[in-house]
Write a structure and sequence with these properties.
Blueprint (H helix, E strand, L loop, with lengths): L1 H32 L5 E4 L4 H9 L13 E8 L15 E7 L3 E5 H4 L5 E6 L5 H12 L17 H13 L7 E2 L8 H10 L16 H4 L3 E2 L2 H5 L4 E5 L1
Amino acid sequence: MLNLCSRLSFSILLIAQFITLSASANIDQLAGLLRNGDIVFIQSKTPRSSALGEVMKKRGELKPYPWTHVGMAFKFPVGERSKIVEFSDEGEWMVAESVGPVKLTPLSSFIKNLNYDVKRLKSGVNFEQANKLFEVGKKHIKKTYDFYYLDPVRYCSGYVVTTYKDALSIELATPTLISTMPMEGKSTAAVLKEMFPASNEKTSKSKAPMTFEEWKTKTTITPRALYDSPLIETVLN
C-alpha cells in the first residue's frame, strides 16, 4: 500500500512538473514572438467577462464571444518600469491593461491558464512609435475601472484603442451603440442587475450614474470591435 502511494505521489509530481515546464515553454514561445505595442487578447473567466462574451455574440452564433479582455505588450529592463527597450534586448514583458486600476501586469500572469491571441498593427510599430504608445498609456496608470464602460481609458478595449489614437493618430475601432447589443444572456442579466439595482434593493454598489434606458443610448468600444479591426493582424493564437 505504501509502495502504491509512493508511486502515485511520484506520478503526480511528474505531472505537476510537466505542466509547469509546458507553461514556461508557452511563455517563452510567446515572448520570442512579441513586439512592443502588440495587442494581447485573452479569454477571461470572470462573471463580467461571461456577460461580455454574451453581449458580443453576433446573430446566429451559439457560443459567447471568446476574447473578453485585452492589453498592450511592452518590454522593460529587468526591474525597471519607466522606459521600454527594444524587443530584441534583454528584459521582461509586461502588459499594460485597464482592469481596475490601469496597471502593468507581467505577461506570465496576464495569460496564465487562459486562451490568448496576439495581434499587431499591419504597418508595424517601430521603437519610436512604441515609446509614444507607452508614454501615452502610462499617463492613465492607477485610474480606476469604469464598470459602465463609458470612459474609454478606464476599461480594457477602450484603453488600447484610445492609447493608439492619442499616441499614433490611428483609430483601431469605432464605438458600438449599447442598445444594439444582445442582453438576454443569463450572465448578462446578473451583471445588469448589479449595475442597475432596483431602488428597493440593498446593495453595496454605488448608485448607478444613470438609468438603464439612458445607458443604452451610449456607445462603448468592445474587445470584438478591436479584434475585428482591419488595421491589425494575428501574430499568434
